[in-house]
Every structure is written in C-alpha cells, then in structure tokens.
Amino acid sequence: MFEGASNFVHSVDTAFLIVLVISVAFLVLITFLMIFFVIKYSRKKNPKAENIHGNVPLEIAWTVIPTILVLVMFWFGWTGYKEMSEIPEDAYVIDVTGQMWQWKFKYENNFESDSLFVPVNKPIKLRLHSLDVNHAFFVPAFRVKKDVLPNRNNVTWFTATETGEFEILCAEYCGMNHSYMLSKVIVLPEYEFNEWLKKDSSSSISTLSSASE
Each residue of 14-61: pLDDT tens digit? Predict the structure, then answer.
C-alpha cells in the first residue's frame, strides 16, 4: 500500500485504508459484543426473560456514529473521483483501442504501438475505444481502471511519477482469452520518449513507403 507510480496512488490508497480500518473495527466490535451478550444473557444466568424498553442515548449513538463514518468514507471517495475526473488541459493525448484480445495505442502523430509509451511527470489523457465487447483498462501500479466500451468513448488520465515498465490488464471478462489480454506501460524520461516516438514513427513511414513501391 502507498507503493505505486502515479499521482493517484496516495488518494486511492488512503480511501481504501480508511474503509478497511472502519470495516475491521466494526468487525471486531460486533464480534466482541455478540460473544459478550451470549455469555451475559445466557439462559443459565437469566432463566426468566425480561423486556427491554429501549435506550435513547444508545439509539442516537448508533445512528449518528455510522452516519458520520459513511460521510467520511464518501468524502475521501469523492475527492479521489474528482481528481481523476479533472483532466489537465496540457495532457498528452493517446488513443487506446481494446479488442479481443489485445491493446493498441495511437499517438498524436498517428503512430501505433502494442505497448503504451509515455513520458514521466507529464499528464497523459487516454481516449478509450472498443472494437467488439466490453473491456476495462487497468494499470494496478497507477491505480487507474476505466471501462472500455463499444459505441461509446471513455476517457481517463494519469501522471506517471516513476520510469520503468508496468503491467496493463483487462479487468472485465471479455471472452476465452481474457487473461491473455496483457500489455505494458513503458515510462521514459521525456527526451527519450520524444526520441522514441520520432524514431519509430519515421521507421514506420519508411516501411509503408517501401511496401507501396
């Protein structure tokens, strides 16, 4: 937890940790109270049952406290969602196409690749499309997951904060070879990314020219 390589790691992991802590605390509390009441109000100790007419402070407490906790969880979830929805205007745009069972990435100069190459510390906007069925673009190290749907364009974004290679998965079952729908995000220093894009797009154009001749 709190280990990753994008600008969303802290907010997503914080929200997850808060929900986890609250859930575990309630699990421990409820389990303890169940055992305590089973022992305290067992038939041996209380052979004659007595009616309980309620406790106003207790009823207020078990209404107000869970409401506050739910609002806390909502706040952290909402702030994280808002951050993911506000795409910077200067983001570099890449088209992502999902199909059974591969990913394709198209850059602003129309060059295409099977792996996603991005510069480090620069906002990246992904325009997501599907050619067939529902997919989900998921980069665990970036805490980024978004549905990729046919006949509908989705967008997501991130800023990679570390160079290296990171897995891309399809997080929605899309057919027999769903588990093989894998790729990589390759994060480079910006000057290396620019050199890679210029070199590979130039070689691609040369290959197409040779083929047409």
Answer: 999 999 999 999 999 999 999 998 888 777 777 777 777 778 888 899
Q: Which residues of the chain are in CATH 1.10.287.90 domains?
A: 9-85
The gap from C-alpha 34 to its chain's centroid, in whole angstroms, comes to 36
Distance in angstroms (rounded) separating the CA atoms of residues 115 and 183? 6
Task: Give dist(CA 167, CA 103) in Å, integer.
Answer: 12
Q: Measured between alpha carbons, how far is 211 from 213 in angstroms, rounded to an integer?
A: 5
Domain 92-212 CATH class label: mainly beta
Give the pTM.
0.79
Nearest to 209 by CA among 80, 201, 121, 89: 201
Other beta carbons less than 10 A from residue 3's beta carbon: 7
Sheet bearing 144-148, strands edge to edge:
116-119, 183-188, 164-170, 135-139, 144-148
Given the candidates 1.10.287.90, 1.10.10.10, 3.30.1490.10, 2.40.37.10, the CATH classification of the domain at 9-85 is: 1.10.287.90
Which amino acid is it at 159?
A: T
Distance, CA of 202 to CA of 112 (rounded, Å):
12
